[in-house]
Amino acid sequence: MKVLLDILILLVGFVALIKGADWFVDGSAAVARRFRVPGVIIGLTIVAMGTSAPELAVSTSAAIQGSNEIAFSNVVGSNLFNLLMVLGICAIIHPVPVDRLIMKRDYPVNLGITVILMLFTALPAFLDGNLFNRSMGEEVGNVSRICGITLLVIFVLYIFFLIRNARKNRTEEAEDEELMPGWKCVVLILVGIGCIVGGGEAVVYGAKNIALAAGMSETLVGLTIVAMGTSLPELVTSIVAARKGQVGMAVGNVVGSNIFNILLILGVSSAIHPFGINLASVYDMIILLAVSVITLFFCLHKHRISRAEGVIMVLLYASDMVFAIMR
User: Fold this and answer.
1) Which residues contact residue 60 at a Cβ distance below 8 angstroms, ignoring those fewer than 6 apart?
2) In the predicted model, what is the mean pLDDT of residues 193-209?
3) C-alpha–C-alpha distance, residues 96 and 88, integer Å
4) Over the chain, what is the mean pLDDT?
5) Does the pLDDT of residue 175 top 50, yes or no?
6) Does residue 50 register a pLDDT over 80?
């Protein structure tokens, strides 16, 4: 009976996610048109913040309870899912053109903060020359409060830069374009976010209970089920955005969410409660860095992600999940 209830919660969560993403994208696109802001900027800010809300809720809650390893695994796992599955599935549905501004400005930020996180967390372990002779569960590094505050400072500077850039790059508004009323934009965005966050929480709750009932460990559930569940808003929102022709919003959502996950979510988590990381997490960070470079290569190739490259990205994610389960 309990399993049936969990399955029902899972299904309701999926419905809320899909409908919420639909409303959220419509409202966000209307805001972009009303204020003559490029869709990619909306994707990097409003949409990315909204779809990162589940990760923020889960990681902050974990930090308050002192379970920061869940927060760290959730962020790394979500970023991997965003880069490989979200962009990969979008590309399989329809080849994804990549905005040149994102590649010049935002993707380097994403890659740079991933490197910074590696330096903060694992550099001492790399320097001692004995890193990979340790057990997977052994603590080999830490995310300090100084690291968290540094990430939050970078986050504030990045948001300030985005807002200033948006004001400089307003698009020309078509005279005959009918704009959605402002109150309706706000309602769609707020209701959409509510459905996305609530649906995401329901999916994570149902999937986690089903997985634990099937005998999976909590660590594995955190890296896979929780990370995938909290990334479902990015997946659904990006697919809906791509199908509605808001491709810039779809790519901006993924890149923006990954930046927010590291800077805001890990920043808040480690500022609340510094924590150590084990060797398994270091492996995940190395994989995330490698995936970021591979995705950058795909994006730079003809400035779009093709269907074939989308298939490769999905297969890479499946391989990483197999590696996570095997280890």
Assistant:
1) 71, 265, 268, 269, 272
2) 75
3) 9
4) 78
5) no
6) no
Cα(279)–Cα(269) distance, rounded to whole angstroms? 20
Token pair listed for 62: 């974990």
Burial (CB count <10 Å: 0-12, 13-18, 19+), residue 37: buried
Burial class (CB in 10 A: 0-12, 13-18, 19+), 5: exposed
**Residue 148: exposed, middle, or buried by beta-carbon count in 10 A (0-12, 13-18, 19+)?**
buried
- Tell me the C-alpha distance between 169 and 36, whole Å: 9
Q: Structure tokens of 318?
A: 């499946």
Token pair 């996180």 in the structure block, residue = 117
pLDDT of 268 above 80: yes
The answer, yes or no, to whether residue 177 has pLDDT greater than 60, is no
280-284 mean pLDDT = 82
Output phi, psi for 91, to 5 deg: -70, -35
The two tokens of residue 158 are: 């990045």
Beta bridge partners of 97: 304
